[in-house]
Amino acid sequence: MEEKDFNNLDGQEIEQEDTSSGVLITQPFSPNDIKLSNPPMNLGDLIDMIQYDWIDFHTEYQRNEDLWSPGKQSRLIESAMLGLRLPAFYFEEVTRRHWKIIDGLQRCCAIRNFCVDESLELCELEFLDFNGKKFSDLPFDLKRDIRMLPVTVNLLNSGVPDKVKYILFKRLNTGGMELKPQEIRNAVFQGKAIELVKELAVNSAFLKATGHKIPTKRMQDQDFVTRFMAFYLLGYENYVPDLDNFMNTCLEMINHGKISEEDINHMKKDFTRGMELAYEIFDNDAFRKRESVADNRRPINKAYFEVIAVTLAKVDENDSDQILAHKELFKTNLITEMNRNRSYNYSFSGGTGQPDNVKRRFSRFAEILRKSINNETI
């Protein structure tokens, strides 16, 4: 398939999509499932918990510690010294002595650096004359006032169902660096499901088929893999919006043993086979929408990835041989359909989470594949 330019039109490797489902979702859980408490605490309590390693700074959120400059950290401490209330903290209670940070990581880092490790010397203060001071250098009454400052802590209690936890994490994620859905999944669905996602994300056939172009930063590669797993294991025919919930259902079923080990092993083998077949057919154009052989190469399209990856993963060996024998016709048929069928084309970019669009893109792609195997044009 010839092309004028192998560079992307917009410099991006992943095409933007609108995942809206167009359906009002009623979440399948009771308000009684949400166990959020507000224990009365002061800053001293938080300092003590940090000192005794009860606060987990190393979660699976793909966020870095100490992103704030010393000046910004110092001004947070200055606010506490002035008696100003700090923004609310959000934690998940794993056990009584193990809390995970949901929101407030950088604030906790500043408190740890100044009050516990004393690695922070105050600087760039705006009101108080304590530049160059460490916590131990402060007068006793000021250290006492810092410790006595009331803080608002919202604690998500242990035992909350994973799906509920995911939604709460998403809504409570109020920090400056908003978490991506896959980052939240990696925190919520720890266990077999996430280990499987990580394993497939470094699969050599996947990396080759995508040209190593899907960023690992912010877990975008794992988001692609999770979409594949959901549609492969649950089937597009059983899709229920929204897309996030569909993917989460798959991960939850894996963790709870509702998908057999045999099915998982089949999926892993088929994933590799599907990626290899995609590369043999499309080469470095795999998973990129094309409306003309003369077009510049476009970014990778998530919805196109899920359709191609799942469909090719499920074809049998004889069909694989036939696809390769007619791959030029197959690519021509795909381009023809993209041009003549606007609703099919749109299903890969707009409202990709709508049930009609999900069924349309999967079913029509399968029809195009079948006709191409039979050496028929569309």
UniProtKB/TrEMBL annotation:
It holds the Pfam family GmrSD_N. InterPro entries: GmrSD_N (IPR004919). Residues 1-22 are annotated as: Disordered. It comes from the Bacteria. Residues 57-189 form the GmrSD restriction endonucleases N-terminal domain. This is DUF262 domain-containing protein. It comes from Parabacteroides faecalis. The lineage of its organism: Bacteria, Pseudomonadati, Bacteroidota, Bacteroidia, Bacteroidales.
